[in-house]
User: What shape does this take?
Amino acid sequence: DYQLVPPLSLTSPAHSSPAQNNIFYNDAKWSSMWYIHCNDNVHNCQSDMNIMGAWKRGYTGKNVVVTILDDGIERNHPDLFQNYDPQASFDVNGNDMDPMPRYDATNENKHGTRCAGEVAAAANNSHCIVGIAYNAKIGGVRMLDGDVTDMVEAKSLSLQPQHIDIYSASWGPDDDGKTVDGPASLARQAFENGIRMGRKGRGSIFVWASGNGGRSRDHCSCDGYTNSIYTISISSTAESGRKPWYLEECSSTLTTTYSSGENYDRKIITTDLRHRCTDSHTGTSASAPMAAAIIALALEANARLSWRDVQHIIVKTSRAGHLSAPDWKTNAAGYNVSHLYGFGLMDAEAMVMEAERWTHVPSQHVCVETADRQIRTIRPEHVVRSVYKATGCNDNPNHHVIYLEHVVVRITITHPRRGDLSINLTSPSGTKSQLLANRLFDHSMEGFKNWEFMTTHCWGEKAAGDWVLEIYDSPSQLRSQKVPGKLKEWSLVLYGTSVHPYSLRSEKTRSAEMVGPTEEELTEEYIGPCDSECNENGCEGPGPHNCINCLHYFLKFKNNTRMCVSECPSGFFRDDRKRCKKCSSLCETCVGSRSDQCTTCRTGFHLNEGFNTCVASCGDGFYLDLDSNICRRCPENCKKCTSFNICTECKPGMSLQGNKCQMTCDPGTYYNGHRRTCEPCHRACATCAGTGIEACSKCAEGYLLEDWRCVLTCSTGYYLSEQTSDSGQLQRSCKKCDHSCYECLGPGERNCSSCVSGYNLEAGACVVSTICKDANEESWAEGSFCVLVKKNNLCQRKVLQQLCCRTCSQKG
Amino acid sequence: PPCNARIYTNHWAVRIAGGPDVAERIADKYGYRNMGQIGDLKDHYHFFHSRTIKRSTLSSRGRHSFISMEPKVEWIQQQVVKRRIKR
Assistant: This one.
């Protein structure tokens, strides 16, 4: 089906044309490389990373140098030798220039070679695969085949920073769900030097695999490498768009590429040791080099991009596509973001297009807000909530942050079991990110000592306002209550810019608008007092419309006149250049001129939460919060609702349980709300409401329902009941005996087969065995009472029979 | 060793002001081999001591403590093995 297009035509920039839609390479595995030509509309391909789109524009990684920090690189592999770069390579373990892997029987050191192929395997050489940046230079650092120390890491991360553009690392601290570890002092310095001085001051690009600890319920916030602002943390999605089993969630993930998933998902193919190919390369380590290669395409499109430009371009161009995550949300700057995939799947063509026209983002400001040192006790099953009013360091122009990039929360917590902690952070704009989730296997008592959690979820939002930190302690097992956890200290480190990151690209236009009146306009000099809203540049008259420049904001009218005002009036917003600009027609107040930048709406309209648009009525999935006049999102999985906790209709695949929507599970499974999956019932249950034998609602074949349990035989105090249903089926269950019986053969008080102590079995009934055994032999008091009973034939009366036991019941 | 015990190696990271010659002289004086600068980190050197046990749960003392008293030695750290996993 492929149309042969000579690959040579792709080596120089060219726009795609319909004739070029199909590209064919003679590499053996080319046709299986679905993640590159996913748009072939075969195999139900849903969205792709637009690699071919970038190739068609002429970008194949030429003049970009990538190195793989790993266990070496097979530099003479037929798919790698052509692009191998000795200057981008080193053997840290052996302290020499040759990063060739050490060969052993298990091929343990295959990892680096596999990663390298994904980046820069040569194209059209009849061998194996095609790298995503198949004209990039590729190097390898052998550093994992020996003792890894801080120094080994630092050496690797700071290798040739003026020559190497991109460092790709697919390793880290153990993903066992109980480790908290990150770069030590030398590796930190290597990162910092790299971003400050690498690539001639533009900053080295560090790409990092986010972690494979999904099955161990690990959280990538506990890995200080992937959690760092200097690394681009890469997540993975399966071909289907589902979360792969190995995936870890966290708030520091920036973006995602494809990797392997379930058996039915297609796999990633790459170069392997001993000159071979493999489709076994999996996990986030398959994803990171793919991301490195896509970044290489962008760097070819614009070599002047700084390390932060690259991150901005990724944030702008990654997209949710068909990636399925329960927590996709739109932050206040309009970016879709999730804890599984960051900002979504990478889009190579969109990246190179952005790169081509990119203007550097303004310089990075770092605002370290004063630490909150109030000690708070973290009680089990309780929440500690701490609110911090951030200014974004507005009193210091060198540190002032208005528009956010990364947000770091530095926390010191003591706690008897670290894995029981979960931490959330909510930005002033209301974006909530989970900095830490519970970790089942983390029994450590060390807590967190000045650990830096990072979130990318507030990217583009405003920094100033109330930040809310919430710490939950959910004990997973019995724990000593004597030493509760304590939040000792926390502080915010806000990274971002003091001007809008994309404002510089229209700087000239803006400057033209900002300059004062022309010389012609200043024909007569005014020497009177100026309006209080004029700044020190003076005025041409007494009114606020005569100011040369404004103290606060200026309001422009249609007739091109302008006036200085202390605040922008309703229906206007203030921009970074002190101008009041008109909001969209339905907004009452707003933060920008677009219709999705409203903060309140005109009468008759409601603000749509998450979209910041104004609508006349709330749509599906939203309810009207009358107090705030906001269409708020219904709870997760709810199609319609009347308030934040009352669903009235559920999304497909969900069913209404009370007021909540739960996943509809197959018979024999139940919905586990904690894990958000359907899990199998106990084997004794046919259907159930939860885990264990006691949550059965219907029993499996051979089992009998006894209250809420399913049992093989009826327990003591229960009898076997057989009933024929309306459909004629025999239904067997265990029913409780009458309360007077200890054991019974059937229902009612006359079917007892044994009695509890203190009762005697009398013709199937249990009667009280009183101390009155025989009226004639009784003690004085009771004997006379029995005589009285007999004399008056009171034993004939049923209610009095038990008062005189055998005498009455046997002889009447 | 217990799984959380530190394992000390016979490699040291040292920060020495004054350039490679000074680093070389100090390495010689205390019996280390100077393996050169640590990557691109200025004034940071990799010292190796072949007569120290390759891996130990105890950190090394003696000459390794004395070297820190050299006026040009600003910082020294015996390197510890870090558990790193390929992903």
Notes: Chain A has ten helices and 47 strands. Chain A touches chain B through 43 residues (CB under 8 Å).
